[in-house]
Structures are given as C-alpha cells and as structure tokens.
Amino acid sequence: MKINFKHPHPQILVVGDLMIDHYLWGSCSRISPEAPVQVIDIQRETTVLGGAGNVVNNLLTFGAKVEVGGVVGKDEAGQELVQMLQNAGAGTSLLQVQEGRKTSKKSRIIAANQQVVRYDKESKDSISKESEQKLLSGIEKNIHQYQLIILSDYNKGVLTPTLTQAIIKIANLNNIKVLIDPKGSDYSKYTGAFLLTPNKKEASTATSIEIKDEHTLQEAGFLLKKNYQLTYSVITLSEEGIAFFDEKEMHKIPTKAKAVYDVTGAGDTVLASLGFAIANDWDMIEACNFANYAAAVVISKVGSATATLSEIEEYIASYIPDFNSDTAIKTREEIAEISKDLRKRNKKIVFTNGCFDVLHLGHVKYLEKAKSFGDVLIVGVNADASVKRLKGEERPINPEYDRAYLLASLNVVDYVVVFEEDTPYNLIEAISPEILVKGGDYEGKEVVGSNLVKEVKLVTFVEGKSTTNIIKKIKTKA
C-alpha cells in the first residue's frame, strides 16, 4: 500500500473530552516512617495531551489541519491545556471556558518505570447548556470549512446527547462524515454517524451480545449498524485487527503488529488514521489497513501515542517484502518533510549523490559503506539533462527513473531523490544531513555542500569498477 494522499492537509474538526496527562517521574529507595508507603523522589515532570487531545496530536502528526471543539475550566489546567493545543498547531477558536468546571488532569507517579499511583482532578458532569449552545453555534458557523468531523467521547460530559445529535445532524446536512469513538452502554446519541469505533468489549456491552467467535462478532457488528443507522460499523479487535461491516458483509483486516510494547493511545491512533484516510477519499479496506499499520507503529514504541507518515511507510516497507520501490523515490518537497521528521526522531541522516548510470558492484559497496555512517541513507541522483551536461551527449545509458528505481530497490538505500542541477547543493540544503559522503577521488578537493553538514566522509572506490570501464568493455566487444 503506497501512501499517496491527494489531500495531504485536510481540515478536520475534533470535538470531545480534552485532558492533560501529567507524569511525575522519580525513584524510590525507602518506605515512609509515617505510613507503610513508598517515598518517591521526583526527578522530572512531563505533560502530554490526553483524551481527545491525543486524537488531535495524531492528526497533526499526519499533516492534517485541526480545529478543536471542547470545554475547559476557568483554571490553571485549562490555560495550560489551551496553550498545549496551540503549541502543537491546533486551532482553538471553538474552545469554551466554563466557570466552576475543572479541566481534566490525570497525574501519574512513576518509579522505576512502574506506575505507583494516579490521581485525577476533573469534572464529569455534563457541560452547561450555555457552553453546549456556544460550542454548537461555533461549529454551525464554520461547518463548511471541515472535510471531516471526529467525536472523541471519554464520558467526561462534553459530548452530551443533545450536542452529539446536533453535530451529527448538521454534518449530515452538509455531507460531512462523522467518526466517533464511543463510550458507555447507550449509543443512541450517536445515531446517524458515519461510523463508530468501539473495541470488542465496548461493542459487547452496547449490544448485550458476548463476542466470543465469528458468529457473535457478526451479530454485534450488524446490530450496531442497524440500531444506530451507521454507514459502517467498525469493531476494533486488539491483536486480531479491525472488523468493519457494510450493507452485506463483515470484512476483517488483520493486525500488522510485529511486537507490542505499549498499547497506550492505540485506539486514538486508529480513530485518527481512519479519519485521515477517509478525508482523503480512501475506501474502507484501504483506510482500515492504514489504521492497522499506524497502530502497529504506535504499540511497537514505548511511551509514544503517535505515528508519522514516514514511520508508517518504513513499517509497511519492512512488513511487505515485495513493497514497491517507487515509494522510496521522493520529490524535493517530500524529502524535506521526511528529513524534518527524521531529525525529530534523532535519526542520523547520511547523504550521497551521483549519476549511478550503470549500477555495479562498486556502487553497491560504496552505498553500503555510506549507510554504515548513520541511520538513514538518502541518495541524490542526477537527472538525465544534468548527466548529459556532466558526461556528454551519449550519457546517460539508463534514464533517470530506471536509475532511481534500481537504487531504491537496494536494502541499504532508504530514499532516492532526482535533482536537475549540476550540483546537489540545494538538495543538501533541503535535507540538512549530518553526514555527506563522497568518493575517495575528492581527497584534497572542495566538496559541494560541505558547509551545510557536520562531517564529510570519503569512501574509496572498488578498484577497476566503474560505469566508464563497463561501457568501454561493451563497445570493445560490440
């Protein structure tokens, strides 16, 4: 599955229960003399967006433009939450502040990487009618801006039955799909949505059907679809993947996970990735596959609840042995974004370039050595016109796409970019690699782009192996 979105930055509205996940990290070396409890020496504090905020984070990571609807208290935590959303890049013009309401903040004390205790400060009552009306009014006013709406319900009082039904009706009138992560046992307030994403346990509770096999899974899925007039019913199945139900049949999309380290936030990732794919007009099978890959990336990492598109793409490439090498060929704009993401993930980027006209052993050994200097190898390939200017009218032997594709098919090469200029200076500037690799024949010479990188590495070519020699040999035998 090639990741190719025709709407790379869809405008998506997320409405729901926003919260702050607060972590106090420390160590324990003694028991309190006052009571038989651990004494935790706190060493650092971290905060991340939780609840509906985690869905927002996932969408922003994919590249969506996100507007957030919700209600916070007139308190310090409320101000902190709004600032966190704004710092992440989300729009907050629809957020309402309600006097007397406590903003949800869940604090966890962690010692030796284990949660010792959690304490919550929050309001669980339904939001006021005034907050409800203001939020709905803002959504109605801006409804034409959104390509999709996601409702993230954590049962903390924002998505009241009245508000939820009103949002669904406004969206349906404007042909905007509504995706919902539901809570509770009564799903009537979600009637008319495009789809719901309960897990197996939640679906069992909502339908009073114990899901224990394929038959009961089908019963529950179709009952949800019928009872709540959904376009699709979706049930997430943990390690078994995702099941969705259309008019006629159940479709099961198997999980893509190789290893599970932390399932935190996987449900939010599934909801966000389904929404992102559907906003790009993908069909349900494609969208569920994408959601499974995104969830697989998230649960394979500790303490992270988001997955970038480049991480998902890397995962797909490793998951499918015959993955299309076209996916590794990028435009300058694409590689600039990917490189930015790689740097955020502390990946050491290595760059090299050349014509690579007739791929041979010398090239491969050179690229293997280049990859050994870092984590990700990006190869710049001279376009056909550039090769002609550098090598003469008879070159290249192979056109630029062929040369790029062959390089992309090599295990040691992560990305390939074709550039038109005679030198890769502008491309190096866009990528900003840490390591620039050139051939040993550059010893004592100025290397283009050396001022843009931390280090230049020179690699000795394999003696006697060159495209020029191969061409001469062919001509001699012709």
Automatic annotation (TrEMBL):
InterPro entries (alphabetical): Bifunc_HldE, Cyt_trans-like, PfkB_dom, RfaE_dom_I, RfaE_dom_II, Ribokinase-like, Rossmann-like_a/b/a_fold
GO cellular component terms listed in the entry, alphabetical order: cytosol
Domain of life of the source: Bacteria
Catalysis performed (reactions): D-glycero-beta-D-manno-heptose 7-phosphate + ATP = D-glycero-beta-D-manno-heptose 1,7-bisphosphate + ADP + H(+); D-glycero-beta-D-manno-heptose 1-phosphate + ATP + H(+) = ADP-D-glycero-beta-D-manno-heptose + diphosphate
Domain Carbohydrate kinase PfkB: 11-307
Region (Cytidylyltransferase): 351-478
CDD domains (UniProt xref): RfaE_like
GO term, biological process aspect, one: ADP-L-glycero-beta-D-manno-heptose biosynthetic process
Keyword Cytoplasm: no
Gene Ontology molecular function terms on file: ATP binding; heptose 7-phosphate kinase activity; heptose-1-phosphate adenylyltransferase activity; phosphotransferase activity, alcohol group as acceptor
Domain Cytidyltransferase-like: 351-461
Enzyme class, UniProt record, top EC level: transferase
Pathway the protein contributes to: Nucleotide-sugar biosynthesis; ADP-L-glycero-beta-D-manno-heptose biosynthesis; ADP-L-glycero-beta-D-manno-heptose from D-glycero-beta-D-manno-heptose 7-phosphate: step 3/4; Nucleotide-sugar biosynthesis; ADP-L-glycero-beta-D-manno-heptose biosynthesis; ADP-L-glycero-beta-D-manno-heptose from D-glycero-beta-D-manno-heptose 7-phosphate: step 1/4
Region (Ribokinase): 1-323
Known EC number: 2.7.1.167, 2.7.7.70
Sequence positions that bind ATP: N199, K200, K201, E202
UniProt keyword Repeat, yes or no: no
Active-site feature positions: D268
Record family assignment: In the C-terminal section; belongs to the cytidylyltransferase family. In the N-terminal section; belongs to the carbohydrate kinase PfkB family.
Main function: Catalyzes the ADP transfer from ATP to D-glycero-beta-D-manno-heptose 1-phosphate, yielding ADP-D-glycero-beta-D-manno-heptose.
Quaternary assembly: Homodimer.
Protein name in the entry: Bifunctional protein HldE
Organism: Thermoflexibacter ruber
Primary gene name: hldE
